[in-house]
Amino acid sequence: MQPPIILVADDEPINRSLIQRRLERAGYRILTAENGSEAVEKTLAAMPDLVILDVMMPVMDGLEACRRLKDDETTRDIPVIFLSARDETEVKVSGLSLGANDYISKPFKAEELLARVDVAMRLKHERDGLRASAEEARAHAEIAQERAVTDALTGLLNRYGLQRALSREHAEARRYERPLACLMIDLDNFKKINDSYGHSAGDTALQQVATILTEAVRRSDMVFRYGGEEFLALLPETDLEGAAALAEKIRAAASSRLFGDGEHVFKLTLSVGAANLYGTESGNDMIARADLALYHAKEQGRNRVARAEVKA
């Protein structure tokens, strides 16, 4: 493990040398700067674990250097300790109000400096640990949320994911008067596939249908596993004609290929119901009409596309 890096900024060479030697003996790696401007530049370049600033320095004093470090998002969380011969209360308050962690008055004892440095480094380590834990928890939460709306078998969004997307797309369609359509897709005679070849072959077929759907739709479209052997495609900026054309493309793609794996290969067809958002109906009303159109496609012999009717 690399030793922690401390940047020491002081315009007095003797002070810099004294602090550097003492901190290096304590196991720290030391960078030095002669003024506040150089301290800011080196901090941005090296991202040390701690910055020790003399208050009174040429070119740029320690207070201004601290202000710039705390104003910069990349260096804001680096702890700062002021070291100064100025012991006035207002100077200390100014330094601490800028975000410094500590203020040590000169002359100082080496033991006091080390103790203050150790405290600052320990607090930084604890804060970094808390931040890492928070980021890890956030990542786990995002994964859990993604799993909650994702179908484990096909990798498509599930019905929970559909409700979120449907609410958003329905609002967009209404606000901007844009068309919105959907397709309800069902595998024909799927129970026979499971009964004849087993559920593993059926799962493979579901995954293959998911691939057909995701390859057929546009990037702006969304595909969901609605449940069992049913899928749904949500099609923003699409009217009923466009939805029916896409449905036919999907149906033809499925009917022209074989499904299953190397051990069990079989034909499989799809029936599709297409509907577009009409009048003041809700997104779920549109889906219900697509589902009814799917039922009609099944009644008419399967392996076909049916368009939803609009009630007068």
Could you please describe the fold and organization of this structure?
The chain has 312 residues and is of the alpha/beta class. It is 51% helix and 20% strand. The protein folds into two domains: 5-139, Rossmann fold, CATH 3.40.50.2300; 159-307, 2-Layer Sandwich (Alpha-Beta Plaits). It is elongated, with a radius of gyration of 33 Å. The mean pLDDT is 91. Strands 2-1-3-4-5 form a five-stranded parallel beta sheet, sandwiched between helices. The chain has a five-stranded mixed beta sheet with strand order 7-8-6-11-12, sandwiched between helices. A two-stranded antiparallel sheet has the order 9-10.
Number of domains: 2
Question: What is the helix tally?
Answer: 10
- Give the SSE string: EHEHEHEHEHHEHHEEHEEEHE
- Give a quick account of the main beta sheet: strands, pairing sense, barrel closure: 5 strands, parallel
Q: Low-confidence segments, ≥5 residues, pLDDT <50?
A: none
What would you give as the CATH superfamily of the largest domain?
Reverse transcriptase/Diguanylate cyclase domain
Radius of gyration (CA) equals 33 Å
Features:
10 helices, five-stranded parallel beta sheet, elongated, 312 residues, five-stranded mixed beta sheet
Fold topology:
Layout: E1 5-9, H1 13-25, E2 29-33, H2 36-46, E3 50-54, H3 62-71, E4 80-84, H4 89-97, E5 102-105, H5 110-148, H6 159-176, E6 180-187, H7 190-197, H8 199-216, E7 222-227, E8 230-236, H9 240-255, E9 258-260, E10 265-267, E11 270-276, H10 283-299, E12 305-307
Parallel strand pairs: 1-2, 1-3, 3-4, 4-5, 11-12
Antiparallel strand pairs: 6-8, 6-11, 7-8, 9-10
Helix pairs in contact: 2-3, 7-8, 8-9
